[in-house]
Structure formats: C-alpha cells, structure tokens
Automatic annotation (TrEMBL):
One of its GO terms (cellular component) is plasma membrane. This is Transmembrane protein. It is found in: Membrane. The keyword Nucleotidyltransferase does not apply. Keywords: Glycoprotein, Membrane, Transmembrane, Transmembrane helix. It comes from the Eukaryota. It comes from Globodera pallida. GO terms for biological process: negative regulation of smoothened signaling pathway.
Length: 227
C-alpha cells in the first residue's frame, strides 16, 4: 500500500526499503506455500540435516596452533616437521620388538641403539641424523593490510635469516652450525656477467632445511621488487 501511494505521487518514502521488504515478503510467502504442500518431506529433511550436523560438530576441531594454520597439510614442510617425531616413533617400536625377541642382546648392549654424550645428554637413535626441532620463519606486516614486499621488509627478512644461519649450539663436545646439517646448492655455472652475479647472490641465500617457505617468500619479493 505504501509503495503504491509513493508510485502514485501521494506520499514520500524510501523506495529501496519498501522494494526490499516486498521482495522478502513474496519469497517468504512462496516458502510457506511450499512447506504447506510438502510438510512430511520438510520435517524428514530437517531431521536428517540435524543428525548430520550433530555428528559433524562432535568431530569438529578448533585449531589454535599458528604453525598448523600456516603450514600446508601434507606438503613438503609438513613432512619435514613430522620427520623427527615419526622417526623416533618408528625407532621405539623397533626397539620394543627387539627387546621382546632378543632380551640378552639388549642387556649386553651388543647392538647399542643410542649415541650418548658426556653428562646427562638426551639420548638419540643413531638412525636419526637431524636430532632437534624444526624452525619456521613467518614474517607478517607490523600494520594490518600493509604490503610486506617492500625494500625495508625484505632487508629485515634477510637480516633475520642471516642471524638464523649463524646460530650454533654445543652438543656432544662440539659446536654445531646449520651448515653442518644443511645442504646449500651451488650457484649455476654461467658467465660472469651482471645476471650471473645476481643469480649467485640469490642462490647463496638458499638453504635446504625447514626454512624453504621463508626463502620462497624472499625470492618472490625480490622478483617483485626487480620488476
């Protein structure tokens, strides 16, 4: 009625609100007609959806771990992060089976499965060549919505990675660096021109460890900055 009066020029009002209300009233009217025609089917479908949602909500998991939210499940970084725990789990299973089958050999320590250092060091299996945790570098902008691929942001990223690459620990009476357990690919063989020097500088920043996502961000930012 109000919309008719406005269209006739007898009243003034908000046409958008009236058209929206008329549209929703029409949709709800048709929905009510449909429910009235098929009441049993609507109730059955509603019960099925309620049952499915009940079982789904029971198995729902709220993830709060920042690493799990950023790392792709089933990807290369996820496999590298879980490698240490999987190796230790497999080793414990094999050690438990060997103790059951050969208790005498385990007591005489003829096949010592651990490598021990002086003092109360952590025991690690000899098959595990990594021994330690994992490192994940996630760089986010200080201001939400700010572009992180800037000269200052990339320089800060390089500084952080340089500090990480120089990190060292002392274990088993020796000082260990990342270069002792990482593989750094050599630069491609090419002529000594400007492009070759640029590629060599980029390749020198690559370390095949659990920092691969961080270096991908660095290389992508350098390419964006150059272009």
């Amino acid at each position: 009625m109000c919309l008719q009066q406005i269209n006739a020029g007898n009243a003034v009002g908000n046409r958008v609100a009236l058209y929206s209300r008329a549209l929703f009233q029409k949709l709800l009217f048709h929905l009510g007609e449909f429910v009235q025609q098929w009441p049993k089917s609507i109730v059955l479908v509603g019960l099925v959806l309620l049952t499915v949602c009940s079982f789904g909500l029971k198995d729902a998991i709220i993830e709060t771990d920042l690493v799990q939210l950023w790392v792709e499940r089933g990807g290369r970084l996820d496999e590298e992060m879980n490698f240490l725990s999987n190796a230790k789990s497999d080793y414990r299973k094999r050690a438990k089976r060997s103790e059951v089958r050969q208790p005498v050999v385990a007591q005489t320590n003829q096949t010592a499965p651990f490598t021990k250092s002086e003092g109360n060091a952590v025991e690690l299996p000899t098959e595990n060549t990594f021994g330690g945790g994992f490192q994940v570098v996630i760089q986010t902008p200080e201001v939400p919505g700010e572009n992180i691929l800037t000269r200052e942001g990339l320089q800060r990223h390089v500084t952080i990675l340089e500090q990480i690459s120089k990190y060292s620990v002392e274990m088993f009476g020796e000082e260990w660096h990342l270069s002792d357990i990482c593989f750094k690919p050599p630069p491609p063989a090419s002529s000594k021109d400007l492009l070759a020097q640029f590629m060599e500088d980029i390749m020198s920043q690559i370390t095949s460890l659990r920092l691969d996502h961080a270096h991908r961000l660095l290389l992508g930012g350098l390419q964006a900055a150059r272009s």
